Amino acid sequence: GEWFASLTGPKTSSSLPPDDELAEADPEARALRDAVRADLARLEAVLARAGGGDDGLGARSPGWLSALRGLALSYGGAEERERARALLDEATGADPLLAEAWEARARLEEQRGSYAEAVEVLTRALAHDKGYVPFWLLRGEARRGLGLRHQSGDGDPAQVWQDAESDLAAAIELDPEQA
Known about the structure:
Blueprint: H1 2-8, H2 19-25, H3 27-50, H4 64-73, H5 78-94, H6 99-111, H7 115-128, H8 133-154, H9 158-174
């Protein structure tokens, strides 16, 4: 009946407030977010002093500085997340093997409910590294969100869910322990 439909009915990201609103409402989450931001501000200061040169941490790929800055901004508000998108795109363009940059970029899309864009980002990431299990898991997760969106009236979710299942099967095949 209605009770079962309420459990299985469409769940969309629009029914949840944005992450920053959730953090504001929860003192523990707010404290954690503020601690992450403080750590990232310290990291940004170190990066600024390094100036992209030898920071004593070893050789870096061409996009590492953009990736770190993009990761730092991805924990900010809406404006910072927009800047993070551009920096993460710059990082993956300079070095397509920066897995953390691809992951952060896809998660930014998921956070704003852009599941199709998250799938596209992860498909590009997989073109560079088909053996990285988190890409398969994240794409399966993004496809699940896209399927729920289709179920709520934006199309037929069947193919999207089959694709999500294929992604998760690929992850399990690559590494049954991690998946």
